[in-house]
């Protein structure tokens, strides 16, 4: 017991010493922005706008000068120049606010260009299916994204793999707003509907929907208002292509079946 009390006493002494040391640090001199090393004056914002540039610069100032400066109170910004490419960096001037108690001086930061994020394999596949009805059965296991040329914000080359496809294709695209619609293929995953009864030589929309639900539990909420039967290729006694409509789904799927 005596030893424990001795230990606790020593801890108390350390804590007291620490408090004194912190108190002394409050008198640290104001840091000069111009003393930040040249190598540390280049920052990489998360976007190419002024707000992202200010955030990145403030973080760099605080990290390199060991302060907690904030905009307006301690640092004011001017002369923002946006980065427009990897070859053309931007810049922004950071100046200490007149009444700041943390920093003084002024310096200019270099802003690296933030390129648009390349599409993921999953996103590419989804859009391929939207634009290519014959690709409804394509999966991520059927292709790789080529490394040469590297995928970019506007183009990608994909190369077949596995035992179903061969060759490669070069794709182009642009970044748009994310769609809130689900892929029709996400609820109709079993494309072979098997044998079922239909009254005419080809199934009606109602009969087709009923069999889709029999084979696809995820399609339980699907209604006739959510899709149209495509006219090209025309529906037959063994196959049909359906295309999404309305505001719930997008894309299309090709179905096969037989009359039972």
Write down the oligomeric state: single chain
Proportion of strand residues: 25-35%
Number of strands: 15
Number of helices: 4
The backbone outline, from C-alpha atoms, is: elongated
Strand arrangement within the widest β-sheet reads 2-6-4-3
The total tally of domains equals 3
Q: For the terminal residues, how far apart are their CA atoms?
A: 88 Å
* Largest beta-sheet characterization: 4 strands, mixed
Order of helices and strands: HEEHEEEEHEEEEEHEEEE
Average the pLDDT over all residues and give the rounded result: 86
Integer-rounded radius of gyration: 31 Å
Low-confidence stretches: 1-27
**Helical proportion, percent range:** 10-25%
Secondary-structure class: alpha/beta
InterPro entries: Lipoprotein_mollicutes-type_CS (IPR054816), Spiralin (IPR007880)
Protein name: Spiralin-like protein
Keywords: Signal
Structure commentary:
The protein has a four-stranded mixed sheet. Strands 11-15-13-12 form a four-stranded mixed sheet, covered by helices on one side. A three-stranded antiparallel sheet has the order 7-8-9, with no helix packed on it. The protein has helices at 2-25, 50-65, 121-131, 205-215, and strands at residues 31-32, 42-43, 75-81, 90-96, 103-104, 106-111, 143-145, 155-160, 168-172, 182-183, 192-196, 227-229, 239-244, 249-250, 252-259. The protein starts with a helix and ends with a strand. Helix content is 24%, strand content 25%. It contains four helices and 15 strands. A hairpin with an 8-residue loop joins strand 3 (75-81) and strand 4 (90-96). It is elongated. The chain folds into three domains: 30-111, no CATH class; 121-172, no CATH class; 182-259, no CATH class. It is of the alpha/beta class. Keywords: Signal. Residues 1-23 form the signal peptide. This is Spiralin-like protein. InterPro entries: Lipoprotein_mollicutes-type_CS, Spiralin.
